[in-house]
Amino acid sequence: MSNEVIIKNLELELQNFKTYISTQNDYFQKQLKEKDDRLRDQEKKLTMHASEMINLRQEKQQCENCYRNELATHLRALENTRNEVLQLKHSLQQKYVECSQLQNSLGRTTENMPNSMKQRDKDLRETAALAQVKILNLQNSNNEEDRYNHLQELKILIDQLHSKLES
Length: 167
Hints:
Layout: H1 3-109, H2 115-140, H3 144-166
Helix pairs in contact: 1-2, 2-3
């Protein structure tokens, strides 16, 4: 073989090798670009998830704060209601004593009264007795709604007592 043929073969092999290297390079560049694109997509997804996590944490914190505020408000309302109930209980005890005193004083004065006065006295006694029952019901109530209802009934009876006493 002549040198020219050897050189031509070598040039041809070199050209084939360059083509092979170029093809391999293109293939690896394509693979690298695909992996790079996948990594970018995953990075975007991770960024979105991180942002969502931050938003969820903030939302959770807001909900916890709102819950704490609601709880504090309800606790204050319950404490206020408890204080009002204690005041009402004290007031009712005073009214109970007043009703008892009124009933006792009515008992002493009925002996020398005419019939109309005796009827008025009887009505007053019945109203006072009803008021005492309502006071006991109120003191024994465990439910706020029942307490409120008993208190309203008691107020009506006390108003009736006052109006009967004035007439």
